[in-house]
C-alpha cells in the first residue's frame, strides 16, 4: 500500500467506446494519474440479464491500464442493481420513513437486507473476485459506493422482520425491552417483539429509544453486508479492501471498518470549509491506525448535480489539499471524476476532462498536484505522521443520538467540526479518534457532544487520568443511557461519579440571558447544559447570570496523577470562542502538550517522523499566504536551503522542513 503516493480518478470506461478509452489512457499518463477506480455502477454491464455474468470487459481494461503503469481499485457494483432485479418486485426496494417505496433509478434504491439482493450481490461479487482477484495492477478493492448516502434506515417488510429478530437477540425478553425503553409512558408497552414498530410516521415524536435503536440496527446491518462482501473477495484475492465512506452517511464507521483493511473517504468540502477537510484527514488517519488512508473522491474543481453546484476552487487550492492530505497520513488523492459524464444526474459535475475530451477548468490544478506529488513522494514514503498528544473523540453513535434528539436542529458534524477548528487556530497538533481507540501516548483528551459514554470508555478514560492525562468531558456529554433514556441515579451517570461533582440541573441555556465566567473571560452560555455543585471538584467556571447564578458550569477533579474536567455548557459568540481557546490552551499547558506551532491563521503544520528526525510539512490553505515560527533551524528538503526563525509562505505554497535529531 505504501510503495508510492497515488494520484487517481474515478473512471467509467463502460460509458465510452474504445477510441475514447485509448485517448483517456494517453491523457492519464500525461496528467500523472497512476490509479483509477472502476466498476461501482456497472452491474448492468456485467450482468445484463439475470445469471448472464461476464466481466471480461473490465478484465481487459485492467490489463490495458496496467500495461500503461496505471493501477486499479476494483469495486463491487452493488449500489446500482439492474432493472431485472427490481422490476415487478417492489418488496426488494428501499422504503423510507414515510412508507414511500423507491423506484428503479438513481442508486441505493434497493433494500440491502433483502435476501434475494444479498444472494445476487454475493454471486456478482464472487464472479468479479474470481476473474479479477489475481490480476497484476490490482491496487485494492472498494465495496459498493457510499453506503447510506442517499437513503437512511429502510422500513420495508424484510427490515421489519430483521428488526424484531435483532431486538430479541439484544433484549432477550419483551419485559426487558419495555423496562429499558420506558414504554409505560404513553401506553407504548409491547407484549411481543413483533409488535414493536419501525419508526415511521406518527402524529408526534417517536420514543427516543425506538428511533435510536432502529438507526443502530440499520448501521449494524450495513456493516454486516460489507463484511459478507469482503469475505467473498478474500476467498480469491489478497488485495486490500476498503469502502469510500463519510461522516455524513448513516453508517457507524468504527463498526464498518473493523472488518476492512484500510480506510478511505469521500469529501467535497468547499475551500471556505477547509477545516472540514482537515478534520477528515485527522479522523481517517486513526480509523485504521498504522495504515495510510485514501481520499477516494474529491472534486478537481467543483461539485455539481442537476439541482445544485459549488463554485470552483481558486487556482492553487487543490495542490494545498493534496499536500496536506499526504502529509497528514494519506496515500492517495483521487478525483470524482476523470471524464465528465455526458448524461445522468451528475452530468454538470466538474472533472479532469470535459465530456468532449478537453481539459476542464481544474486541469491545470491537477497538473500542479502531480508536480507536488512527485516532489514530496520520497519524503512521505520515508516518514510517518507523528501521533498527537491531544485527542478529540468522534462517535457515529453520538451522531445517532443527536439525530434522535437534535434540540433546536443541532447537527453533530457541524458541532464537532466547529469545536475542532479551535485546535487548528491554536496550532495544536491533534488526532481525531474513535470511542474504541487506545489512549496510549495522549496527554489531553476531549469528548464533546457524546450523549452516551459506554462504561468501557469511561473506565479507559478514567485510567488515562489516573496515569496523568487530563480529560475534558462535555458539553452535551454523558446525560443519556445506552437506550437513549435519562439516568435515574444522577444526572450524568457513571461520568458524574468519576468527576467528583453533583449535577444539580440540566436545561437549555439562552445565550442572550446566561453569562458565565472562566479563565478571566465572561461569555454567553448556550446549548442544553449541565449545572454542577462542585463537591469534591474545584469550580473553575461560574454562572454569573441566568437561572442558576453562582453555580458551576466548569469543574476540575484530581484523579490519580491527572484530572477530569467537566464542561457543562457551550460558551457562545466571540467571547465564548476566546473562553474555549483559553480552556484548551490552559489544559494543554498543564498536561505538558509540546506539539504546538505558532502559525498565522490559514496555515497548517503536519509533523512527521523519519530516520533523520522530525519533518514539518507546512501548507498555506487559505490563499492569503502565511508564516510559522520554526522551533530551531531546519533544512528545506525540496530546495536544500537552510530555514531559520520565521518561515514565510506565499498563497497555497507548501514547504517541507527537516529538523535535526
TrEMBL record:
Substrate binds at residues 107, 145. It holds the Pfam family Glyco_hydro_42M. The active site is at 146 (proton donor), 297 (nucleophile). It comes from the Bacteria. Residues 10-375 form the Glycoside hydrolase family 42 N-terminal domain. GO terms for biological process: galactose metabolic process. Residues 602-658 form the Beta-galactosidase C-terminal domain. Residues 388-593 form the Beta-galactosidase trimerisation domain. Keywords: Glycosidase, Hydrolase, Metal-binding, Zinc. It catalyses: Hydrolysis of terminal non-reducing beta-D-galactose residues in beta-D-galactosides. InterPro entries: Beta_galactosidase_C, Beta_galactosidase_Trimer, Class_I_gatase-like, GH, Glyco_hydro_42, Glyco_hydro_42_N, Glyco_hydro_b. SUPFAM superfamilies: (Trans)glycosidases, Class I glutamine amidotransferase-like. Its EC number is 3.2.1.23. GO terms for cellular component: beta-galactosidase complex. Gene3D superfamilies: 3.40.50.880, Glycosidases, Golgi alpha-mannosidase II. Zn(2+) binds at residues 111, 154, 156, 159. One of its GO terms (molecular function) is metal ion binding. Transmembrane segments: none annotated. It is an enzyme of class 3 (hydrolase). Belongs to the glycosyl hydrolase 42 family. This is Beta-galactosidase. It comes from Bacillus swezeyi.
